[in-house]
What does this fold into?
Amino acid sequence: MGIFDSILGRSKPPPADLDVLFAVPQAVISLQTQGFAPTGSGSVCFRDVEGNADDVVMAEAEQLISSSPGSTVTRSEDRFGFHWLTVTRADADVSGLVTDLHAVNSSLVDAGFGSALLCSTVTFTTPAGKPYALVYLYKQGTFYPFAPETGERRDNALELQTRGLIADDVPVEQDLTKWLAIWGAPGLG
It folds into this structure.
């Protein structure tokens, strides 16, 4: 941070703690005890950067992950213009999935695109068979549950219940205003 940034009150956000993603398998165990089932799918959401430098990084990450047997990678863009890279593991191995997501995130950070990272998701089905995600916010370094319903509504009661369930496993975002609705995220609707 430069002198002018401090005078003008600007600050740089802290770098994302990508390694906290490796705590997700413990949260998965807690969720499974209540009937949640991991789908074997997860995504990384990021803002597109001008030029094709980030496209090159994504293509390299795709190639690396796709070389693992049983892993597929797809790219998509949501209606808000955010880009998603989705990894699906045929074996639904959450530890492997988290490793793949970490590789995508690390590739972007190492190439200088860390500020473009928005969130990562690991998707589940609820005991009632509905979609559910554990969402990691890079800029906060915390997770929150997201339980979408039809018609762009959320199951807030389920989100609050599962917050308590995973609180000992992963750092949970305490500010509920940061629990953003990620409508149209891959695997959630």
In short: The radius of gyration is 17 Å. The longest helix spans residues 94-110.
